[in-house]
Design brief:
This protein is an all-alpha fold. The chain has one domain. Helices cover 83% and strands 0% of the residues. It has 9 helices and no strands. The model has no long low-confidence stretch (mean pLDDT 77).
């Protein structure tokens, strides 16, 4: 099992990762602003499911395989960038609709959250390059990943719940008019596209 110091450092790193704006945080916030608290929680559960998949990959050695293949990481990065741009375009189109925006099914929101996090470059780098630094190779890897995974998921859920509740409060107070919802939709769409472009650009620089 990891030491207390390892747990503390990992918890701090996890908090900094999850609280900083990124594709996952943006998706949860945008969905909450556009469809309310239920949609926000559905998107949050999709995000957490994606993180569980990455934890499973780390425990089974798939993350190590990805880290050894720069081509696989680049494919993952470009797929994530393209998906973020796609979500941005779709979000902009819905923001331009004059009528009340259609409410996406919660199952679709969950699935989009899952895909967003599976293709999230920030999360992939964390689990592929950063998580192994907290593992002791002289001890069984799977129990260590499981223990650190509990810490990661607990912090990620707490942070995402805060974003959902905060965004729901903002939506209820400031986004009651159609014009305000349209502006919020445009901002969310632009941010999606900007994150996708940034993810692609980071790959070009390397």
């Amino acid at each position: 099992m990891p030491s207390t110091t390892t747990f503390a450092l990992f918890a701090l790193a996890t908090f900094l990762l999850t609280v900083s704006p990124g594709p996952g945080v943006l998706y949860v916030t945008a969905r909450t602003l556009s469809q309310g608290r239920a949609a926000g929680f559905a998107s949050m559960f999709g995000i957490e499911a994606g993180e569980l998949a990455w934890l499973t990959a780390a425990a089974t050695g798939l993350a190590a395989l990805l880290s050894a293949s720069s081509a696989a990481l680049e494919v993952l990065r470009w797929c994530g960038a393209a998906y973020l741009v796609y979500l941005g375009v779709q979000r902009w189109r819905r923001a331009e609709e004059p009528a009340e925006p259609r409410r996406a099914p919660l199952g679709r929101i969950f699935a989009q959250g899952l895909i967003t996090q599976l293709l999230n470059p920030k999360v992939s780098v964390f689990f592929v390059a950063f998580l192994p630094q907290f593992l002791n190779p002289a001890q069984p890897i799977t129990p260590q990943v499981a223990a650190l995974g509990v810490v990661y998921i607990a912090i990620a859920v707490a942070v995402d719940v805060s974003y959902v509740l905060g965004a729901a409060a903002v939506a209820g107070r400031f986004l009651s008019s159609a014009s305000a919802r349209q502006r919020a939709g445009r901002v969310a769409a632009t941010t999606y596209v900007a994150l996708g472009v940034a993810a692609a650009a980071s790959g070009i620089k390397r």
